[in-house]
Amino acid sequence: MSNESFDHLSDASDLGDVSNQDQKEDPVPLVPTKQREDVAHQKLVHFVIVLVALCFLAASNPKKAAPVANTTINTTFDATAYRLALGERQMLQRTKLFENEEKIARAQRVMQSRTWSKLADVPEYYWDKYIPDPTRFEGVEMYLHMTKQNGTQVAEALYFYPIKFRKGGKEGDILVSWPSLNGDIFDVANVGSCDPKTECLQGTYQIEKGDLVFEYTFTMEGGQKLIVKHVFYIPVDSIL
To answer: What is the pLDDT of residues 134-182, one digit of tens each?
Structure first.
């Protein structure tokens, strides 16, 4: 045989080998079924562990029970809350003053017919009927500010407490006071340099158509003055 035939076979054999090598390269990776099952199992176990841990954490930190209402009265004075409540009451009082205009007008006509000029002229029936009229106050807020009594019982007394007449002194003079405070208000706290127990405080009153008008003048150093006008009236229901 000639060498050419063998060379041909050799070349064909080489081509066959190359073809077989090409078919064996780059096989498609396959994940075994058992391996996939193991991964899924691990994820499930991990999820269960986390869930159990969360349940244990919640059990070890229970929510606090709602506190039982304490019926003990808090005696600590809250000036802010007191001032807000006082303001609401003041607004309500002003509103009531303008209600029932017809009755008020009739009551005013009755009071205008009175000829009272001094406390002794006021019948005893009305001695405990006078209540404050904040719509006619002057200088009251400044007085409370200067004496640092805003939001206190004194402020409440000035705006809401009725005054009462009583006989006092050797001559049986008629005096007025705030029974809830066991006395007067304006002779307690200093206004600037004015000590109300001295002559720097002067007080007068007059009766205007049945209404009782007090005026207090505090004279401080340098001649500065604070004038406080405090007005009381008799409610309609007590007149008609």
So the answer is: 999 999 999 999 999 998 889 988 999 898 888 876 666 778 887 767 6
Name the phi and psi angles at 147, rounded to 5: -95, 5
Give the pTM.
0.55
Q: How far is CA 25 from the centre of its chain?
A: 83
Burial class (CB in 10 A: 0-12, 13-18, 19+), 57: exposed
Give 69's DSSP letter.
P
- State how far the alpha carbon of 228 is from the alpha carbons of 79, 121, 146, 202, 216, in Å: 23, 24, 12, 11, 5
β-strand partners of 166: 175
Domain map (residue ranges) of the chain: 79-239
Q: pLDDT tens digits, residue range 200-224?
A: 999 999 998 889 999 999 999 999 9
Amino acid at 231: V
Query: Sign (positive/negative) of CA torsion 87, 145, 202, 223?
Result: negative
Give the residue from 211, 207, 186, 208 showing the smallest Cα distance to 131. 211
